[in-house]
Specification:
The chain is mostly helical and about 375 residues long. The protein folds into three domains: about 60 residues, no CATH class; about 120 residues, Tyrosine recombinase, N-terminal domain (DNA polymerase, domain 1, Orthogonal Bundle), CATH 1.10.150.130; about 150 residues, Intergrase catalytic core (hpI Integrase, Chain A, Orthogonal Bundle). It is about 45% helix and about 10% strand. It has a three-stranded antiparallel sheet with strand order 3-4-5. A hairpin with a 2-residue loop joins β1 and β2. α5 runs antiparallel to α6 and α13 packs across α14.
């Protein structure tokens, strides 16, 4: 017998046990072979059943069926085996598909790396208890020519190791001892007002390109969301939808006002039956397909350095310069933390303070100029004072 949520429950599942922490909270574990894994999901739910099955499999040191040559057949207790367990876990499957694809691809590239230069032994087959910070640093530094990719290796390995520590598969996270590579990067180019006007001149109202620009600029949405938006999301002058990127973490809808200028452009543009934007085949765009199509429209406008994401950055910069607060930017751009917003508000504040400081410099110059023309009173002898 055990307790969960204040109610007594029968432990009908093998290896399932419970206890209470020092705060009186009930905790459930799967215990096997002297090790245990905590189950954090609510009993009786599908998520609980899946977490329980994953825990039993991990404690039995079984390799889950993951369709990937990089991990297929990896011996138990190796880095490849941990990766296979991670890819099959509830935590990994809870990520949005794009994040899963990116994270998995980077980790698998690391698994295919040789353990030493010129060696035939792969990182995949390295015993997990021998994986060290030196290995993580080596994998990071092999991407030194592309610092962003180097940091992504460290980042996603750390996420996997952190999960493995929590599951009792590793004693520590070696990636935590490896620092990120510091480098300067502005990321995607942020559009200027002149560049927006140049795009509008090439693509006037009534074109699909101008509609795409307006949706991105006046709604602050990501390209993964702009391709799904349509009249079914509009009501009472507002658009209401759940952002694609965060829907697996929180299902709270995002609500954005349809500004009059945007309403006019939508009314004067060709749209689909459900989606505002459709491909030339009358089908909704994919996020990647839209990104490529929009870049072609930028090229037509003589803006090959501009992109859909850079337009979102421009919107954030414009809003911040017009006085938007961190909280307002978070609401408009669907950011869950203030870090993104603060980057724009701080930049806007620096610009305003620089303008104020520049005026102070001009005042000093005028004052110094006026003082230089003041005559110095002569002393009693008729000569200039030196003191």
């Amino acid at each position: 017998m055990g307790r969960c949520g204040g109610l007594t429950m029968r432990m009908s599942l093998p290896y399932l046990m419970s206890d209470r922490d020092r705060h009186g909270n009930d905790r459930l574990y799967v215990r096997r072979h002297g090790r245990k894994i905590r189950i954090r999901e609510k009993p009786g739910t599908e998520a609980f059943a899946q977490a329980y099955a994953d825990a039993v499999r991990l404690l039995e040191r079984e390799i889950p069926a993951v369709d990937s040559p990089a991990v297929r057949g990896a011996p138990a207790g190796t880095l490849g085996w941990v990766a296979a367990c991670y890819f099959a876990s509830v935590e990994f499957r809870g990520l949005d598909p794009k994040s899963q694809f990116t994270r998995r691809g980077i980790i698998e590239h690391c698994l295919r790396e040789p353990r030493k230069p010129g060696s035939q032994d792969l990182m995949r087959d390295c015993p997990i208890n021998l994986v060290s910070a030196a290995h993580v640093k080596m994998l990071r530094d092999r991407k030194a020519a592309t610092p962003g990719a180097a940091n992504n290796r460290r980042k996603y390995l750390s996420a996997m190791f952190g999960w493995a520590v929590e599951q009792g598969l590793m004693r520590s996270n070696p990636a935590r001892e490896v620092r990120k590579v510091r480098y300067a990067s502005a990321g995607f180019h942020t559009w200027t007002i002149d560049e927006v006007r140049q795009f509008e001149a090439r693509h006037p109202i009534g074109t699909k390109a101008r509609l795409a620009l307006a949706l991105l600029l006046y709604l602050g949405v990501r390209r993964g969301d702009v391709v799904t938006l349509g009249r079914q999301h509009a009501k009472g002058g507002w658009l209401r939808f759940v952002p694609r990127k965060t829907r697996r973490k929180r299902a709270e809808p995002s609500e954005k006002p349809i500004l009059p200028i945007l309403a006019d452009i939508i009314a004067g543009s060709p749209t689909g039956a459900l989606n505002y934007l459709e491909s030339e085949y009358g089908k909704p765009f994919t996020a990647a397909g839209f990104g490529n199509w929009f870049r072609d429209r930028c090229n037509e406008a003589g803006l090959p350095h501009c992109s859909a994401h850079g337009l979102r950055k421009a919107g954030a910069a414009i809003a911040a310069e017009n006085g938007a607060t961190d909280r307002q930017l978070m609401a408009l751009f669907d950011w869950t933390t203030a870090a993104h917003a603060t980057k724009y508000t701080e930049a806007a504040n620096r610009k305003r303070m620089a303008a104020t400081a520049a005026n102070l410099l001009v005042r000093d110059q005028i004052a110094n100029t006026e003082l230089s023309h003041l005559s110095v009173p002569p002393d009693d002898t008729g000569s200039s004072s030196k003191g």
